Amino acid sequence: MKYYFAINMTSAEFYPYYEGKIQQLVVTTTSGIRVQFPAMHMRKYLLAKGIKGCFCMETKNNKFLSLTKIG
Questions:
Q1: C-beta atoms surrounding 29 within 10 Å
Q2: Residue 71 and residue 63: Cα distance in Å, rounded?
Q3: Mean pLDDT of 35-51
Q4: What is the pTM of this model?
């Protein structure tokens, strides 16, 4: 299953996730579905200004497979 969503978070907003104080990120997909996944998968997309863009997350049997920035 593929889920498409957008994120616009400052680095300060993402900091608790980066530290591991908050471990799960909840996003709403473009089709209105709420999806929860480990925030550690977003770390590689963190820049000085934060995380901004559109992403595609792939799962199989509700297991995380991949996360790709698409915009």
A1: 16
A2: 24
A3: 95
A4: 0.89
